[in-house]
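Lab notebook: predicted structure, single chain.

Context: the supervisor wants predicted structures on file for every construct in the current expression panel, including those that have not yet been purified. This is the next one on the list. No modifications to the sequence; it matches the entry in the shared construct table.
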Amino acid sequence: MLAGENEVNVSKVDQSKSDKTDILLELKEQRDVVIEKLNRFINFIKRANESDLLELESRLDHVSSIFNHFEQVQSRIESLEKCTTNSEYRETFENSFFKAQAGAKNKIVEFHSNIQARITASHNRTETGRFRATLPVREGVGDLGNSKMNAIKRFHKLESKLINDTVIRQQYSEFMREYEKLGHMTKVPTWATEVDGKGVFYLPHHGVVKDSATTKLRVVFDASAKIGNGISLNDTLMVGPTIQEDLFAIIIRFRQHNVAMVADIEKMYRQVEIVEEQRDLQRIMWRSDPNLPLEVYTLNTVTYGTAPASFIAIRCLHQLALENSKKYPVASQLFDPLGLVGSVIVKAKVIMEKLWQHKVDWDQIAPSPIISEFIHLQRELPILATIKIPRQITVPKANVIEIHTFSDASTIAYGACSYLRTVDNSGQCSVRLICAKSRVAPLKVVTLPRLELNAALLATNLTAKLMEAFTCRISNIFYYTDSTIVLWWLNTEPALLKTFVANRVADIQGKSKIENWQHVKSEHNAADIISRGSPPSQLVECDM
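Prediction complete. Output recorded below exactly as produced.
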């Protein structure tokens, strides 16, 4: 197992103790607990198998947060002892952790590559051109047990609810009738329904009512439902990597062109068939009327709710694009997590951090100053509706396209913002804000130069993400910081720097050209408003 759920929090050390020795003892006890958890993580990586890697991937962020607690505790110990040997101890352990973390990520990448190759190799087409895929069953999966009784029990509960609601019952029956009419599910012959165990699994199902113009009710098939032996269908299937692009990349491209198109694929998952020999893994129980016999059906297509459904469907889309790349060389995709009002979000994040500092529980009244600050921000939020942001960020037929990214930090937050500068043949120039990113400064005392370095790393990662999203050729990239210390660090070999700085400098050097980093005066730094936060009334007046 990975590190436990109970995180150590340096803020919980009893600061009222007058004896420094007592505080140090308590801090060191906390440090020992954290180190034990992190050592378990390091050892876990060394022996991780396929099933372990799935857990590992879901817990990497959690493990990183535990490591951050180690840094907090160790920094507090160092400040109390004023001793350099402790700092060396921390750097030694940091190197072990980062090496293990990098190893874990490499294993996960390799694992995902193997899954993708395995699923991709099984794809083929039907006579009508429809994709047919194989469910990626884990190796060593044996008898799946008796899932039929659980499915029957769940169906009877569902049926009793449908009897009492004629509207929902009608919609449910219509949904299933259409499912069968389209060939997406098929009735299983009576003689074949006796087969159970290996290669057979019955999925319970229920309805989800959605307030939508197109669909009022959707039937959901529960592939995570566990049966008597504690196994669900999803437990036996590999997930596959996330290959669909996030909304950030999609909306960046949406802002790139003169004309943008939006499209929707009807019943996307159900456009892909499952090979016939695996359809018994997707059996269900159904009847439209309690007076009719209970029938067994197989779901013949990729089923929403199964672990690999998203990967299989998206992979088929990629394959379709690949096969038609010569015929249709450009395909548009499509939405705002761009941080365009990031300075206002920083104000909200700072309020949340103050609540945490004051240890205010969810059902407690916050201190008056925090309440006043929140009310003031809340009253100004409607002002954001007056902000108009141009969708397109380029001039037509641009021959110069540059990304300019600024970074800045304050004692409360740090952030970065990117602009696109485009110029056409006639010299017409446009500079538009693309996106921004912010982080609240940690509660532990961190020097301003280190926060500025964090901002520079954030700027580098933000720009790298933009480069992945843009489909146009970028002429040049420029980075700006008002910290001369950061610029000196970036021009220094990481081996000569302390671990905290060295790790981040190495990351920045690997993702950007250092000669593209420039100094900007604080009053001209576009990221200043993000690092300090601003109410909506100030943001609307900002000409950056």
